C-alpha cells in the first residue's frame, strides 16, 4: 500500500528488518537515528532499484575486520548523501572535514545502540565524535576530525565502564573516506541488450517477464519466509531470559510445522488480482528528456545515484491505466510546445517537474501539474495556467475523457515528488474526485491516500469484513478503525457493525472521512483526530465485556510505532485484531510486539496469529497485501465498564444529527 511521498519510480519493495527487541534490549527503540541507519545496513536479499548491488551482512563478513570495513563504507555513503563527496568518491574542496582518525571501541554490550555509545562519550566529555554501531556486535567505530581529539578520547575512555563492561580502544586508521564506486547502468550498458522500454519495465514492474501464476508463487514464498521459521518465528524464539510461563506463551509457534512454509497458522493461497494490466489509478510522471533528447512525460530510467536522469515513455508498461497514459501524452504535447525547459534534477533549474494523475473507475480524473516557478515572471505563470487549462480541456474532449479536476502546484524543494508541503491552485473543475468502492462513493482529495487497484481492494475489504465477524442482521460489534485515513475500511463495514470508531492523526483525512460518511448517510461512525496510542485507551475502556470489539489496523508500509502496539497490548478488553499489511517484512516488528510474552514494556496477554491471507493488488510488481488475524485469551478477570456509545464526547466525538434515522445517532453533524 503506497503512502504519501512515494513515487512510481521508487521501488516499493526494499525491505529491512530491525534487530530483535529482547528483554535485555530496551535501548534500541529510543535511538532517534536507528531507522536511518538500518536502511543502509540491511537490504536483505533485495536488489536496489537503481542498479545497486545487494548490500547485506553475510556470515563471512561478520568479522571485526569486515564490520569495520562495512562501517567505513557506510560513513563514506553518509557523506556522499550529504553532498560532501564528489562523483569520483573524493572529498569535495569546500568541506572542512579533513583527515579522519578512526578508533575501535570494543567490549561493549552488543545490543547497545548508536545513541548509547554517543551518550557514553558525551558523559565522559567526548562530544566531537562520529559514531557507527552495527546491531548485535560488541564494538563500535569512533571517528575524530583531529589527532588531538582522538588522543583525548583514548586517554579518557579507555577502561571506562559502559553498561557493566570495561571498554577498550584501538586506533585503526588515518584516512580520507573513499566511497566504493559501484557500476552505474551506463557502465553496464555495453553488455545490456535490453531495449529502453524493457529496462523501464524491469524497473517499475520487475516481475513483468514472468507468467502471472509464477509471480503469485514468488510473492507467496516471500511472505512465508517473513512469517515463518526464518522471520517472525525466529524473532520470537530469539527473545532471551524468558521465564517458564513466558515460554509457554510461545508454545503456539510449534504449530508452524503443520502449516505451509513453517508459518505458525493457516496460510491461505494468494488471491490473484481481478485485473492484471492497466490497474493503477494513481501515478506520478516525471518530466524530462528521453535517450534521444526528446521532451518526455513518463518514468525515470535509473535515478540520481545511478547517474541517469532519463525519462522514458510509460506507454509500454503493464500497470498504468489507459486514461493516465492519455493525460501523460497531453502533458507531453504541452511541454514540447512550451518555450520553457523541463526541471533539471542535477542543476536544480528549469520549469516543468511533475504530473500527478488520479484516474478512477468512476470515470472521474484528477491531474496536478507541478512546476518550479523561480525562472518565470508572474505574467508568464498566469499565461501558462491559461494554456494548461486549454490544453487539458481540448485533449480530454478529444479522448472522450472527463477532466474532473485540474490543479497546479509550485514547488522549489529538493524532493523530486508530489509534496503536501506546498499549496495547490485549482485551475479547472472540482478540488476533489470520487471513486466507488464496495458500493460506497468516496471523495478523494489530491493528497489523500487511496488504494490504487479498486477491484482488488474490494476483495481485500471483503476479507476484512468476514474476519471481523460481521454479518447481516447481527450488529453487535464495535469496530475500531485504527489509522483510518479517509475512512474507506470502516465505512464499508459500518452497515454490519454496531458502531465504527475511526482514529487518524491527519486532519485532512479525518475531514474526508466525515464528508464520506455524510454523503453516504452512514451515521453510526465517529472519527477522532489524534494519535492511536493516546486515543485507544480512552475508547476501549468504555467497551463492555458483553460487547464484541475488533480493531482493524491498516498502517503505512513500515507499520505503526512501537507505542501503538504497547497501547493495544495494554487494553485487555481488546482481544481481536485484523491487521492489513502492505509490506509484511517492514512491519514484522509489529507482529513480534503483538505476540511476544508479557513484560514490563508489553503488558496484557500476548496475541497469537491465527490466520493469514495474501491478496495480490500489484501485478508485475513485488509488493503484496497481507491480511493477518491476531487473537488473545481474555484476562483472568476484567471489570465491567460502560457502553462506548455513551460519553463519546470525552474522546472528541463529533456530535449528533437529529435528522438521522430512528435508532441511530449522527456523530458527524457538528
From TrEMBL:
<dbReference type="InterPro" id="IPR045850">
    <property type="entry name" value="TRM2_met"/>
</dbReference>
<feature type="binding site">
    <location>
        <position position="504"/>
    </location>
    <ligand>
        <name>S-adenosyl-L-methionine</name>
    </ligand>
</feature>
<dbReference type="GO" id="GO:0032259">
    <property type="term" value="P:methylation"/>
</dbReference>
<feature type="active site" description="Nucleophile">
    <location>
        <position position="582"/>
    </location>
</feature>
<feature type="binding site">
    <location>
        <position position="451"/>
    </location>
    <ligand>
        <name>S-adenosyl-L-methionine</name>
    </ligand>
</feature>
<feature type="binding site">
    <location>
        <position position="554"/>
    </location>
    <ligand>
        <name>S-adenosyl-L-methionine</name>
    </ligand>
</feature>
<dbReference type="GO" id="GO:0006396">
    <property type="term" value="P:RNA processing"/>
</dbReference>
<feature type="region of interest" description="Disordered">
    <location>
        <begin position="1"/>
        <end position="35"/>
    </location>
</feature>
<dbReference type="InterPro" id="IPR035979">
    <property type="entry name" value="RBD_domain_sf"/>
</dbReference>
<dbReference type="InterPro" id="IPR010280">
    <property type="entry name" value="U5_MeTrfase_fam"/>
</dbReference>
<dbReference type="GO" id="GO:0008173">
    <property type="term" value="F:RNA methyltransferase activity"/>
</dbReference>
<dbReference type="GO" id="GO:0003723">
    <property type="term" value="F:RNA binding"/>
</dbReference>
<feature type="compositionally biased region" description="Basic and acidic residues">
    <location>
        <begin position="14"/>
        <end position="35"/>
    </location>
</feature>
<dbReference type="InterPro" id="IPR029063">
    <property type="entry name" value="SAM-dependent_MTases_sf"/>
</dbReference>
<protein>
    <submittedName>
        <fullName>S-adenosyl-L-methionine-dependent methyltransferase</fullName>
    </submittedName>
</protein>
<feature type="region of interest" description="Disordered">
    <location>
        <begin position="44"/>
        <end position="63"/>
    </location>
</feature>
<dbReference type="Pfam" id="PF05958">
    <property type="entry name" value="tRNA_U5-meth_tr"/>
</dbReference>
<keyword id="KW-0949">S-adenosyl-L-methionine</keyword>
<keyword id="KW-0808">Transferase</keyword>
<feature type="region of interest" description="Disordered">
    <location>
        <begin position="178"/>
        <end position="199"/>
    </location>
</feature>
<comment type="similarity">
    <text>Belongs to the class I-like SAM-binding methyltransferase superfamily. RNA M5U methyltransferase family.</text>
</comment>
<keyword id="KW-0489">Methyltransferase</keyword>
